[in-house]
Design goal:
Radius of gyration: 29 Å
Largest sheet: 7 strands, mixed
Strand content: 15-25%
Structural class: alpha+beta
Shape: globular
Distance between the termini: 59 Å
Number of helices: 28
Number of strands: 21
């Protein structure tokens, strides 16, 4: 074949034979074999001579994706054929109609769906959101499209090393923001964890390498301990006549890193590096749920349990179909260890996700948790969409959540994400109930609608016809349904206010004989503390502001004030440039406005930074590399990420930073804090807040530092003060 060497052909043939060996378990007849073989040779011909960025023949990619579909997801022959063909329509002259003529409507539909998902991840953010919405709306029709796309993304992540840095950031942002949560929601736990690990490897290579090295260094000692821990368990369950396997599952690098970030602790303080998994062969006599609890009772004869850490997902399975009983037991060294108890069927669903779910679903007719989740997602995604960022954030909210179970006054169980409030519960009942909620009876006690719920709570919502949503409500809900309902209501109110505001403004300007213009708004918006015209009109229409003094504003000379000066440099072929940094809302047309310091994470010199090029203004907004807002932007508009940016020099003498402190209260601790900050480190304090309760103090300090290194040194010095236990940068 033109373009491929004999060595290439040998590699292609080897992977093809491996795929055929895997297909032996899914091909039911000769037509299945013929379909897969035909798909391979068509894809090979279509991608003839084409190579990936790594230099390898392109056909190896669809072959690898098809193998993941069979071995790691467990889909059938049609899905395997679609996986082999998934890039043919997008990258070659073949059409969806050709696919239908050659392979039938089902495979053509899957290939078409996969092509649309690829288009959804294009450079156009709004098209990306709308196309992704359309694809997700087909979930209940043929979710195999999404499963194959996850296999495609997994192989792309496994081969990401050959891509340039800016592409790596775009792809890892998309993966962390959407694909890993989607894999979790579809029950593909092993794929979800590998996607997270690979994302961390490319986003923070140094941190990943350090944690991986430490885990390898402690592996032997850990394995010895795991074996020692499970030995009495193995003996106890064998005596009880239970058929089972028991093993220790070590945490992934990503989960260790996440805990270090969340708890702000070093690797050495992450004690739960492994969990114990017991998978038993069920009997026909006793229900699986009863067998889970029986095994738990046997374990408590060996190790002390922690009653408040039992997670009963056999009685209330997760929405992705996951079932298991999780218990926490005390190890001989005094450290709590999680033990997962599940049947072979539960294990199959936990590892293989939907493919296993469908296999076992044939045994039941009732709607299950996964069906309910699919229905809720379809309903939510059918609602009118806002901008791309809002849409993708709402999609993510439906995917990645740990659940609690609460009850209505009549005892009906409702599942909500951890952190959900009574207001979330109200919207879960009905949009009208949420929009008119004024309070809640939680376990027969009247509480605020902002009260966070716990598993087992029984809730009754109190309503009033005069109540209505406010913008503050958005800070107190965590479900997509609640957020969409509140935003929808506020948009209706805001649009009415904007229309009134436009009418009022135009009438007032006619009195002065002035025609509205961009120059006019550059004067008005800062004067009325507004960032854009819609906000100005909305505030005017809702009477938050008025135009009584507009004549004075119009007579004032407009002055744009510079905020700070930095020097950045773009590495590569770009020469270093001294560029002025201005406030983002300054209405100035100056060519000097090129870099903006992001207010969401407020990076200071010395922080690891990545830029985001605003497609409208062309300005580069500088974020900390681990900023959540940046990751969100990268998942939607990865082509606008600027990775080759770094601090070169800076002319501002100090930068505002905030520290949060906690420790044991004692006489003189405030004096010691001030001594270290102002005298020893010569740092200016802007604001200092200290609160003491029950012998513990919490504090927040706003101060001016020269760079990140200076701030890190200050944190180290503060931790040396007697009684101070924790110092974190906000």
């Amino acid at each position: 074949m033109a373009g491929y060497t004999p060595e290439d052909e040998q590699i292609i043939e080897q992977l093809y034979n491996e795929l055929l060996a895997s297909c032996d378990k899914i091909c039911k007849n000769e037509s299945d074999w013929d379909m897969i073989i035909k798909a391979f040779f068509l894809a090979k011909e279509a991608h003839k001579g084409v190579r990936r960025r790594s230099g390898e023949p392109y056909i190896l990619h669809p072959l690898s994706v098809a193998k993941i579909v069979v071995d790691e997801i467990g889909l059938g022959a049609k899905s395997t054929a679609a996986a082999l063909l998934h890039d043919v329509v997008e990258d070659t002259s073949y059409t969806v109609a050709d696919m239908e003529n050659l392979f039938g409507p089902k495979i053509a539909s899957m290939v078409d769906g996969l092509t649309k998902v690829s288009a959804a991840l294009s450079d156009d953010a709004s098209a990306q959101a709308e196309t992704f919405r359309k694809v997700l709306l087909t979930l209940s029709d043929d979710i195999r499209v999404i499963l194959i796309k996850l296999a495609d993304r997994l192989h792309n992540m496994r081969t990401l090393g050959s891509m340039p840095r800016n592409k790596q950031l775009k792809i890892t942002s998309e993966t962390m923001y959407l694909f890993a949560p989607l894999a979790y929601r579809l029950g593909l736990y092993s794929i979800k964890t590998e996607l997270e690990d690979l994302s961390l490897k490319y986003m923070y290579p140094e941190e990943y390498a350090a944690i991986e090295a430490k885990m390898q260094a402690t592996a032997e000692e850990r394995n010895v301990f795991i074996e020692k821990f499970i030995a009495p368990i193995r003996e106890k369950l064998t005596e009880a006549g239970i058929e089972f396997t028991v093993s220790g599952r070590v945490k992934t690098v990503f989960s260790v890193w996440s805990k270090m970030q969340r708890k702000k602790i070093p690797f050495e303080e992450v004690y739960d590096l492994f969990a114990i998994r017991i998978v038993f062969k069920p009997t026909d006599i006793v229900p699986e749920k009863s067998q889970c609890w029986h095994i738990y009772s046997l374990l408590t004869d060996i190790y002390s349990p922690k009653p408040d850490r039992i997670r009963d997902w056999v009685s209330f399975p997760k929405a992705n179909g996951y079932e298991a009983l999780h218990a926490t037991l005390m190890r001989p060294d005094g450290v709590w260890t999680e033990v997962q108890i599940r049947s072979e069927r539960m294990e199959d669903i936990a590892e293989r996700g939907l493919a296993a779910h469908w296999k076992y679903k044939q045994q039941q007719e009732a709607e299950d948790e996964y069906d309910r989740w699919l229905r809720d997602v379809r309903n939510a995604l059918s609602q009118p969409a806002g901008n791309a960022a809002d849409f993708l954030e709402n999609v993510k909210m439906t995917l990645y959540m740990t659940e609690i179970v609460v009850f209505t006054p009549k005892g009906e169980a409702r599942k909500l994400p951890v952190g959900a409030t009574a207001l979330d519960f109200a919207y879960d009942i009905h949009t009208n109930v949420g929009n008119t909620a004024i309070g809640a009876k939680i376990n027969h006690k009247i509480e605020s609608i902002y009260t966070k719920l716990k598993s087992g709570d029984q809730i009754q919502i109190l309503t009033a016809e005069t109540a209505h949503p406010t913008i503050e409500w958005l800070d107190h809900v965590g479900t997509m349904k609640a957020k969409q309902a509140i935003i929808s209501y506020l948009k209706r109110v805001r649009q009415n206010n904007i229309e009134r505001g436009i009418s009022t403004f135009e009438r007032r300007m006619r009195e002065f004989g002035i025609t509205p213009s961009a120059r006019l708004f550059r004067k008005l918006l800062p004067a009325y503390d507004c960032t854009n015209k819609d906000e100005f009109y909305s505030k005017l229409g809702s009477e938050i502001i008025n135009l009584n003094d507009v004549d004075k504003v119009l007579r004032q000379n407009s002055k744009n004030k510079m905020l700070k000066f930095w020097t950045f440099e773009l590495s590569g072929n770009n020469k270093p440039k001294d560029l002025v940094v201005r406030k983002q809302d300054v209405g100035d047309d100056s060519e000097a406005q090129k870099f903006i310091i992001a207010e969401c994470c407020n990076p200071i010199p010395g922080d690891n930074i990545t830029g985001y090029r605003d497609p409208r203004s062309g300005a580069i907004i500088v974020h900390k590399t681990d900023c959540e807002e940046l990751i969100s932007l990268g998942s939607q508009q990865g082509q606008n990420l600027v990775s080759n940016i770094k601090w070169s020099s800076y002319k501002a003498e100090s930068y505002l930073a905030e520290l949060q402190l906690r420790g044991i209260d004692r006489v003189g601790i405030l004096r010691d804090l001030v001594q270290v900050i102002t005298i020893e480190r010569n740092i200016n304090i802007r604001e200092l807040q200290i609160q003491s309760h029950d012998g513990i103090f919490d504090g927040k300090i706003s101060l001016y530092v020269s760079d990140a290194e200076s701030l890190a040194a200050l944190k180290d010095n503060l931790l040396k003060i007697k009684g101070i236990d924790k110092v974190d940068r906000l």
